[in-house]
Amino acid sequence: MLPWKDGDETVPIDRFRGEILQPILRTIDARRLTAQIDQVVYSCGFPWRVDYAAELPAELAKQQMFRFPSGSLTGMTMLYAAVQGGGPNWLDPASNRYFRPPGPDGPPVSTVGFRGWYGWSDQGELLEAGGTRYLLATMLGVTAGRGNSVAEIVRALEAAAGADGTRPRGTIYFLTNGDVRTRARSGPVKGTVKAIEAAGVKAEIVEGILPQGRRDVAGLVTGTPDFDWPASGSRLVPGAICDNLTSFGGVFTPGAEQTPLSAFIRAGAAGACGTVVEPYVMLPTEGGNSPAAFQPKFPHPAVQLHYVRGASLAEALYQAVRSPHQLLVVGDPLCQPWAVIPEVEIVNAADSRPLEPGATLTGRLELEPRASLPDGGSADRFELYVDGVRVAQCGLGERLPLDTKPLADGHHDLRVVAIAATDVETQGRRIVPVTVSNHGLTLTLAVEPRRVRPADTVRVSLAGAGVESAVVYGMGRVLGRMATGQATIELPAELLGRGPVTLRATGRTGPNPGDAVNAPPVTITVGE
User: Fold this and answer.
1) Which pairing describes strands 241-244 and 271-275: parallel, antiparallel, or unpaired?
2) What CATH number was assigned to the domain covering residues 343-436?
3) Strand, coil or helix: what is 461?
4) Which of 196, 231, 173 minimizes the C-alpha distance to 308?
5) Which of 361, 404, 408 is nearest to 513 (CA)?
6) What are the φ/ψ torsions at residue 380 (nearest 5 degrees)?
7) Cα-Cα-Cα-Cα dihedral sign, residues 328, 330, 334, 338
8) Residue 141: strand pairing partners
9) Which residues pair with 417 in a beta bridge?
10) Whole-angstrom distance between the N-terminal and C-terminal Cα of the chain?
11) pLDDT > 70? residue 469
12) CATH number of the domain located at residue range(s) 442-526 in this protein
């Protein structure tokens, strides 16, 4: 929970660095998550533009392309290492080494998975040690100005989540017209279409600014300053990425020119992107008057190819943009319609039986992770997480050890993640709620009512055996403290947020982890 309250449009770079980026990085580190976090995903209400005028060298400030020195919230977060180091190194036109370069026929030869701890060389090679690191960054939605309503964003996210692994039956459309916005990246389109079709997905080059009357739009690449999606009569298939090359697609200021990316989210797109300021990519190239054939601040058309090869939405977009510092990425970053997702089973080695929800665990045990893939492939490795923190890893055919004695008694979320043996490294997971019982401690949490309006109050009650004190919390925030394990408090519902809200409680008898007990969590709904 990051309590940002100072505007939802622009933030100066020093405040972005000190009040948004650094608190995120510090919190990841404090929670011992640095080695396992791959992405930073922002909710609504954060400023979508970062003003770096104060750190722009004087010689650059005189150039036309830096008349409006701004980056996007997501691009500047993705380039966190450069932003932390100053320079300003985020202006490097090849700042993103995760970008997959075009192959001899136009589209990139490879599509690879992303991990935050991976280092990348200047040539885009994955390194065993060293290299540049990134964090893929996305906004779930923008509600400011010309953005979307919360309801529109939620509908789009729900549709995107339902598209995972479905291999949607549709066509990816590449639009062509006389506008320089389509001509600027038309070169690799034919090769990209051929590669998409070779992957078993339909793709088509169509004349116009939008496909007309097509009810199977599984993806879109176009270039136009303005468009009217409802008037096209076309329909987006759940999971679609829509990419429009235009200067102000990521600008949400009321009265701004050009159609913003929010129009695609409103139509049901899983994700879209746009620059948050005039990027000046159409400046004449050196020695001529024509714009460059490839625009590094916008996605290469192969964004759709990475997607159909199984990459997630965030992976597909960031593999396709060489210089992302001005590009705002909005939508469901984990959407992966064409991924082959491992199906995971967790077996207790002691009795060779699957671990079931609600199982009681004591002492030491070993878990046998198993995975099956719909295409007959196999998993490469497995990871074990307890309450979101990775505690063990193993290879195929090996076991995951778990010692429950240092854990708090009571409720825990245990998950096993299987990572497919492919370049994309698709993950599948099984999450099993379990109860640990080593020290005889118990705690129950009751919350009433289960559905409440924001202006009302919720009543939270705890009852525990052998518990001396307790804490109630939600979304990582402490909501109340109790001096005993038997108590009731009242909380304003407005403090909890809107929609489904999960409350948790932990009781203690001493300072060590084993001196604690977790109550089973309770989820309520806050809304009108």
Assistant:
1) parallel
2) 2.60.40.10
3) strand
4) 196
5) 408
6) -95, -40
7) negative
8) none
9) 383, 429
10) 23
11) yes
12) 2.60.40.10
Domain locations in the chain as residue ranges: 10-331, 343-436, 442-526
Residue 150 phi/psi, 5° resolution? -60, -40
Instruction: Report how far residue 401's alpha carbon sits from residue 349's, in angstroms, rounded to the nearest whole number.
Output: 10
The answer to whether residue 282 scores a pLDDT higher than 90 is no
User: Which run of H or E residues covers position 488?
Assistant: strand 487-492
Judge if the upstream peptide bond of residue 449 is cis by omega within 30 degrees of 0: yes
Put residue 28 in one of left, alpha, beta given phi > 0 → left and psi -120 to 50 → alpha: alpha
Structure-token pair, residue 475? 């979304």
SS3 480: strand
Transcribe 268-284 into DSSP letters. Answer: T-SEEEEESS---TTSP
DSSP 359-400: -EE-SEEEEEEEEE-TTS--EEEEEEEETTEEEEEEETT--E
How many CA atoms, within 13 angstroms, populate the side-chain half-sphere of residue 354?
9
CB 10 within 8 A of CB 73: no
Please indicate whether the domains covering 343-436 and 442-526 agree at the CATH topology level: yes
Instruction: For 142-151, give one letter per residue: b (16+ CB within 10 A) or e.
Output: bbbbbbbeee
Instruction: Indicate if the alpha-carbon torsion angle 370, 373, 378, 380 is positive or negative.
Output: negative
Assess contact for 127 and 64: CB atoms under 8 A: no
Peptide bond between residue 88 and the one before it cis (omega within 30 degrees of 0): yes
Q: How far is the C-alpha of 195 from the C-alpha of 105, rounded, in Å?
A: 9
Q: For position 397, what pLDDT does the model report?
A: 93
Confidence of residue 258 (pLDDT cuts 50, 70, 90): very high
pLDDT in tens, 509-523: 988 878 999 999 999
Tell me: the pLDDT tens digits for 177-198?
988 888 888 888 999 999 999 9
Phi then psi dihedrals of residue 195, to 5 deg: -70, -35
Helices assigned H by DSSP within 400-485:
none
